[in-house]
Design a protein that fits this description.
Layout lengths: L6 E12 L7 H15 L3 E7 L2 H10 L6 E5 L8 E5 L3 E8 L13 H4 L2 E9 L2 E9 L12 H18 L5 E7 L7 H10 L2 E2 H4 L2 E3 L29 E7 L3 E10 L17 E9 L13 H50 L10 H52 L1
Parallel strand pairs: 1-2, 7-8, 10-12
Antiparallel strand pairs: 1-13, 2-4, 3-4, 5-6, 6-7, 8-11, 9-11, 12-13
Helix pairs in contact: 1-2, 4-5, 4-7, 5-7, 7-8
Length: 409
Amino acid sequence: MDTDPPLELRVFNLNCWAIRYLSKLRQERIGLIGDTLSQEGFDLALLQEVWSERDYCELKQKLAACYPYSHYFKSGVIGSGLCVFSRYPILDTFLYQYSLNGYPYMLQHGDWFCGKAVGLLIIKICGIIFHVYVTHLHAEYCRDKDAYLPHRVVQAWELAQFIQHTSKGADVVLLGGDLNMHPGDVGIRLLRGWTGLRDSFADTERFEGCEDGCTLVPANCFINKEELQPFPLGIRIDYILYKGLSRFVVKCDSLMTTTGTAPGKSIPYSDHEAVIATLCVKPREEAKASSSSAVEPELVDVVNEARTEVRVGLHAAERQRYSNGRMAILALLLLLLQAAMGLSSLVGWDSPQPFPKFSFSLLSLLATVVLLLSMVLYVFHTIEVKMLQGTEEQMRLALQALQDKLSSM
């Protein structure tokens, strides 16, 4: 193996923004993405927000000659939107759906219905085992008042744990997707610190594309310019992360992003820019092999910061649960009062002016609806509380283990 040339892997990652009936020029853009993938001949194409299985089937049919292997990950009500096209055989797949993913009553956001998840594919290329992960985390709709930050931190923690526990038999780990986090956000620092994944943008030898590697840029015609006012250059939320395990090292030879409209076209591929990385995989020199058991003190601070965000979310979830429980009790009391009034009329205790039947029925219906809705939301927020409590406990144990390792060094 030492005499073999390094393996070069070209990876394409894109959030396709393909929501049926809602995304602009969806069919034209899906066709354009398919044309580009077939012409460029990447080794792997990691796609997100392919919400329609029909779009996936069209891509699969168009790309069958160049990418004979593909997989579509299904979850949630409308699907995870995750799919992968590969030039190499896919040996195995697995999907993990995140335990927290927004709120079902936030219909205008819709993340809960998507069943956000991480998909794993195991691929063997030239004798090297690749564990390829593709994911899409909960969106950030308001950076100043981000109600979903605790959920996204939980997702980042679960993603890190999932990679850590499922990649033990891999030679190379590769993660691509829309993480919906800026490079300095606590979730990204937690993910990278816990897994040891390297950022292709930070490590690349050659970069070409949008300034600072941004993947949401004001120049894109599908972008709401007002949302990017605090970030005139744009933001970077789409990533290709990697690391080598066992006998192999990985480096990013080159990285590029698209910069608005597709070549020769008047429209871009998506509201996101694509990220394209050329990775070089070669055998590790035994003399330079580093120990994987080293613990960086900064990781303790990152896990502490993430745990704080989870606690904030936990307190908010407990307040929501209490409010819904109180509303359910009030609605139940109102129904009991109405039942007592109805019974009194049956036994002949009517007042000289009877209670209007229509108003009585309407009030009963309203109280019943409020009771049922409050009970459903109480159960939902109880589940949210349990998940946040569980994650906070996991982080507490992880912190204790990290501190024990640091004290023994």
